[in-house]
Amino acid sequence: MTRRLPAAFGLAALALSACVPLALLGLWSVAGAWFYPALRPPTFTLEAWRALASARARLGPAALASLGLALANGALAAAVAFPVGRALAALAGWRRRLGAALVFLPVAAPPIALGIGLQYSALVLGLGGTPLGVLLAHAVPSVGFLSLYFLGIFTAFDRRIEDEARSLGASPAQILRRVTLPLLRRPIAEAVLLGMLISWAQVPLTQLVGGGLVRTLPLEVLAYVRSGQDRYAAAGALVLVLPGLAAIAAARIAARRAEVPPL
Amino acid sequence: MSGAALAVERLAAPFGDQPGLDGIDFTVDPGRRLVIAGASGAGKTTLLRAIAGLGPVTGGRVLVRGRDVTARPAEARDVVYLHQTPLLFPHLSVLENVAFPLRVRRMPEAEVRARAAHALELVQLGGLGSRPPRALSGGQRHRVALARALVARPAVLLLDEPLASLDPTLRDEVRGAILQLQAEYGAALVVVTHDLDEAALLADRIGVLLERRLAQLAPPGELFRQPASLAVARFLGIPNALPGRVHGDGTFECALGRIAPDGAALRAGPAVAVFRPEALAVADRGAIRARIVEIRHRVRDTTAIALVGETPLEVRIDPARMPAPGAIVALELHPGSVTVLEA
Question: H helices of A91-213, where?
Fold first, then answer.
């Protein structure tokens, strides 16, 4: 019993550290004018949440733009990283280490440094300040991160099952469609989710490549924080948290329902 | 040659970066069974993968039904290669697993279902088509993998140590399924194994793979009776090898005396006689004196190590009349069971 106490205490501390900031954000998002030293908001309002649902306010369109970018980035980065990770897993020795180091570079590089390089590239390509430019900028670190993810997946993947399918008469395209993709649907879905989350929370790359013309939710939240509009900032920040929570829930449900054992 | 389902001609296949198999030649007719036997690391899997198009070939040709498929991809060879453990697709039902080769050939749905169901009936799994593979026992998985391999009627089926990972009961079940399905579908069968008993039970002919080459290719009875070389004899587990000399009259002289072996005439000169323990028996009227130094008990027989002069020989003994270690016994040799090989 005494051994369990530190663990219980640790879990409680963890839960509090995660829940208290979220609870405070929730309170702030519906608070009226709330100033120190008041312990609780004197009045409540749903104004910030209405702004999120409104197409005329800044938060709603920004949330939609973020969602669109996240979806596109998740799909694009997973589609590129899948064959890259597979090719890396087929390598051995120094080639594999070099390949892994190369794809890790955009992940390891500070976002500001990466952003400056990407900003220049986007301007040269005429994509500066466009959603496509921002999407491609988000895709660069996402592809690096997801390539490493797929490297792990394909290292564990038993490719003999693909040999078996080939020997049974399946072409490479049929093997991909009928064997590999169905077997890896969970890791692929997780990769798309990870790619979405990377884009969803992205600030420096959006700022540098979007040049203020592409307004995403994190940028709007930051702008509200800078201008002291805490109610809007809190509502936007809560929305920013939602996909992460949804991803965790989805992963748990998928793991419980999975018919194919995880690789 | 033209009627062969599979012809392998001077095939060379590397072991990774190293030189591997070289000059492999054999043919298998439709409905026949060739077992390639060899020790671990001899290149058995390399050979099957090269034939299947799943491994590299550095020389020679592979012909299927007379058509050169050496440069063709695995899926276009009409050859199915099965791994040692059955690799069923876990995301498909048992029936869909068996239907897989038919679906990738874009056969009509009705035919796909009928042929897959028939193949499952043949392996006595007709009622389990809707189950996922994980719900099957080990033996059932093997049977499904076999049904799936043969349902599209390939010319050649290659099996890589199909019984190696099974317990004895399952071995009988899976061996029975292999023979039954192969007879039903008429594919040429090539099996690789390190187990000579399995080879003998499955094969029409056995090829012994030694030192990167096929050292001998013969029906099981002939192979076990007449190994072509000392290396083959050793691989077959023949424990007794006695050096001696062939005389001009065709007799062979060694520590056991002068014997007239069966078989082809040999050139006069140095030679080696190889024989199994049962070629030598403890017999009162035997002319060979030997001292028993060790008794060896096995499941199937009991043998003794007997010293003839300074030469140790393994001798089959009757457990009911077992001599004690140290006893001097008389041995009798059955010359018909002795193979003499030129040294």
Answer: 93-108, 111-124, 131-156, 160-167, 172-175, 181-183, 185-200, 204-210
Residue B239 is assigned to a structural domain of this protein? no
Distance from CA of B236 to the nearest CA of A (A): 31
- B298, two tokens: 């096995």
Q: Which of B54, B89, B132 sits opposite A166 (nearest CB)?
A: B54
> What pLDDT is attached to residue A41?
87
**Could you tell me the domains of chain A?**
45-257 (1.10.3720.10)
Q: In this predicted model, which residue has the larger pLDDT, A45 or B286?
A: A45
Query: B148 and B88: one domain?
Result: yes
Handedness of CA B28, B29, B30, B31 (dihedral sign): negative
Q: Are strands B156-160 and B188-193 parallel, antiparallel or unpaired?
A: parallel
Residue-number span of the structural domain to which B31 is assigned: 6-225
pLDDT at B187: 93
Query: Is A183 in contact with B91 (Cβ distance < 8 A)?
Result: yes
Q: What average pLDDT does the segment B274-302 reach?
A: 88
Same domain, B58 and B131: yes
Query: Does residue B250 share a domain with residue B169?
Result: no
Which residues of chain B are within 8 Å of residue A164 when distances are taken between CB atoms? Answer: 81-83, 87
ipTM of this complex? 0.84
* pLDDT tens readout for residues B210-248: 988 999 999 999 999 889 999 999 999 999 999 999 998
Residues in chain B: 343
φ, ψ (nearest 5 deg) of residue B88: -80, 150
pLDDT band per the 50, 70, 90 thresholds, residue B262: confident
- Chain A residues whose beta carbon lies within 8 Å of the beta carbon of residue B104: 165, 168-171, 174, 178
Structure tokens, B169: 């009961």
Other CB atoms within 10 Å distance of the CB of residue B5: 25
Q: Do residues B80 and B158 make contact, with C-beta atoms less than 8 angstroms apart?
A: yes
Residue B133: closest C-alpha in chain A: A260
- Same domain as B88, residue B163: yes
Residue to substitute from A163, A167, A171, interface B, most B β-carbons within 10 A: A167
Of B195, B225, B255, the residue at which a domain comes to its end is B225
Predicted local distance difference test score (pLDDT) of residue A80: 97
CATH of the domain at B310: 2.40.50.140
Q: Is residue B237 part of a domain?
A: no
**B221, B250: one domain:** no
**From chain A, which residues contact B within 8 Å (Cβ)?**
158, 160-161, 163-171, 174, 178-179, 182-183, 259-261
Confirm if B62 and B72 have CB atoms less than 8 A apart. Answer: no
Same domain membership, residue B215 and residue B303: no
Contact B81 A259 (CB under 8 A): no
What pLDDT was estimated at residue A261? 46
> Within a domain: residue B232?
no
Measure B189 CA to nearest chain A CA, in Å.
15
Residue B117: pLDDT band (50, 70, 90) is: very high
Looking up residue B118, the CATH number of its domain turns out to be 3.40.50.300
- Domain's final residue, options B172, B190, B225: B225
Give yes or no: residues B198 and B75 share one domain: yes
Buried b (16+ CB within 10 A) or exposed e, B114-142: ebbeebbebbebeebbeebbeebeebbbb
Which chain A positions have a beta carbon within 8 Å of B75's beta carbon?
Answer: 166-171
CB contact under 8 Å between A167 and B132, yes or no, is no
Averaged pLDDT in 10-residue chunks for chain A of 263 residues: 74 86 90 85 89 77 93 97 96 93 90 90 93 96 96 94 96 96 93 94 93 92 89 90 84 66 41
Kindly state whether residues B45 and B135 are assigned to the same domain: yes
Residue B76 lies in a domain: yes
Provide the number of structural domains found in chain B: 2
- pTM of the entire predicted model: 0.82
